[in-house]
Amino acid sequence: MRRTQLYLEDDLWKALYSQARSLDTSLSELVRQAVRERYFGPLEERRQAMRAFVGIRKDRPEFADSAAHVRKLRRGGRLERSHGA
User: Once rounded to an integer, what is the mean pLDDT over residues 16-22?
Assistant: First the structure.
């Protein structure tokens, strides 16, 4: 996490401060939550998107044994070829 500084108008600060006290949280957490919702969408929408994504490729035969698939990807000189060595 990184520290940052914001300048807020007095009325905005007062509203956030009041909301933070009523929710028993910090003003900083309210700001983080608002930024997440504005730029990443509401939390529940993000959760639903992740649930929809999990297991999306589970029926593909090459992923039946994920450890074997990873070993196959790591085999050979693929990394050397990708770095131009």
Answer: 95
Q: Which one, of 43, 66, 42, lies nearest residue 55 by Cα? A: 66
Specify if 59 maps to a domain: yes
The residue count of the chain comes to 85
Judge whether 16 lies within some domain.
yes
Q: What's the structural domain count of the chain?
A: 1
Distance CA 26, CA 19 (A): 9
Tokens 């929408």 belong to: 45
CA distances from 49 to 6, 10, 36, 39, 40 (A): 31, 37, 15, 15, 11
Quote the pTM value: 0.49
